[in-house]
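Structure in, sequence out. Go:
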């Protein structure tokens, strides 16, 4: 299992409500993902809280994927464009913070992942970067 964290910036609370409904069991986002990205297990949305009041126009999205390989394949798929259009049509801007996994789980290690829109390679999901003993003093 790997996890993808993203920040979603939404234009209005009405769009936030629509997103919340679309993520439910029979919602449009869930239906599209079941058809187009079967490796995506589910998505949770967390509402930003500022001074105890909800700021419902910025959300933290947590996606649960069955494997790094499944997500990597989904990101290369033409189907991803349809899902991105779904968000863009609703005025949602998405910034991906990264792909995460538990460091001690060998099964989470996946292929190298190219960060979207950059020439930067990120380590595979769950991969831990460590310094060699010669790097420490």
């Amino acid at each position: 299992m790997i996890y993808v964290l993203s920040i979603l910036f939404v234009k209005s609370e009405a769009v936030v409500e629509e997103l919340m409904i679309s993520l439910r069991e029979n919602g449009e986002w869930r239906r599209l993902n079941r058809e187009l990205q079967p490796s995506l297990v589910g998505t949770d949305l967390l509402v930003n809280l500022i001074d105890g009041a909800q700021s419902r126009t910025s959300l933290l999205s947590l996606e649960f994927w069955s494997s790094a390989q499944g997500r990597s394949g989904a990101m290369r798929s033409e189907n991803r464009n349809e899902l991105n259009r779904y968000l863009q049509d609703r005025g949602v801007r998405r910034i991906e913070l990264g792909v995460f996994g538990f460091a001690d789980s060998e099964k989470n290690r996946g292929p190298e992942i190219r960060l979207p829109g950059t020439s930067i390679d990120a380590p595979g999901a769950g991969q831990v970067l460590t310094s060699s003993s010669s790097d420490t003093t």
